[in-house]
Specification:
alpha+beta, 6 helices
Length: 256
């Protein structure tokens, strides 16, 4: 399939590193609309929501009843909240990049994985250890892409992503993961892998595309401002979720 939006160099970069950042794909007016919609879903809180206390990650409050326990972590089922999320996924630049990266015109969005707005608040945001998005997904092939929309500055200070380039090509033994499928940091071979990590700095309107097998992590938000990032999971129409798994709970969705 010939490329339609990305250059061959960009496709090669994604193949090599497992991720690609495209700058300023979402214009300022649409970013403002997104932030207004997200604010309307947070005040008052509109279900379904995952709270920091629900995940049990490092730094998270122990229970919802604890101080900060009802700090939002994810606004779930974003596509059911507003058509604005369809609009950003339907941007010609976004769908063009996805078609080039997945080498097909037949794309679907999972409603069971991601399909959310990641929220990271000061004070009670948790850390996310090194993992692959595919860890809890069940598809015929591990060939999916996570699409991350940045609505402001994202960096180490406010809990921005870190990615290990090329790690999507590594097949690690089960012994290198803990019981939650995070990389064990007590193993020398894992520490050597983590040493290769890069900080992914994003600006308002940028879009990050990353392979479902690339290892990534994120720290807590040490600033005074919350961070909001819509994120979605995209797969090809010939890569079906496995029947009877969480990945098949809701049918995938197409807006193209």
């Amino acid at each position: 399939m010939s490329t339609k939006f990305l250059t061959r160099e960009q496709i090669a970069e994604f193949s090599r590193s497992g991720f690609l950042v495209l700058r300023s794909l979402v214009d300022e007016e649409l970013v403002k609309e997104l932030l207004e919609e997200i604010s309307a879903n947070l005040e008052p809180l509109r279900e379904p929501i995952e709270f920091e206390a629900d995940v049990g990650y490092p730094g998270a409050p122990a229970r919802r009843e604890s101080k900060g326990g009802k700090t939002p972590r994810r606004l779930l089922q974003a596509l059911s909240r507003s058509d604005i999320f369809e609009r950003i996924l339907g941007l010609s630049s976004v769908k063009g990049a996805l078609k080039d990266l997945l080498h097909t015109d037949c794309l679907l969005i999972s409603r069971n994985h991601h399909n959310c707005v990641m929220t990271k608040y000061p004070g009670f945001s948790s850390e996310t250890n090194w993992h692959q998005d595919i860890r809890y997904w069940s598809f015929e092939r591990p060939e999916l892409i996570s699409v991350w929309f940045s609505l402001g500055e994202e960096n180490l200070k406010n809990g921005g992503l870190r990615i290990i380039p090329g790690s999507h090509k590594r097949n690690l033994s089960e012994k290198r993961f803990d019981d939650r499928k995070f990389l064990r940091t007590d193993l020398t071979e894992n520490l050597r892998l983590i040493e290769r990590a890069e900080n992914v700095k994003l600006s308002r309107g940028d879009v990050l595309f990353f392979h479902c097998k690339v290892f990534h992590a994120a720290g807590s938000n040490e600033t005074d401002l919350p961070k909001f990032s819509p994120v979605f999971t995209v797969h090809t129409s010939d890569n079906e979720p496995l029947s009877g798994t969480r990945s098949a709970d809701l049918p995938s969705y197409t807006i193209w």
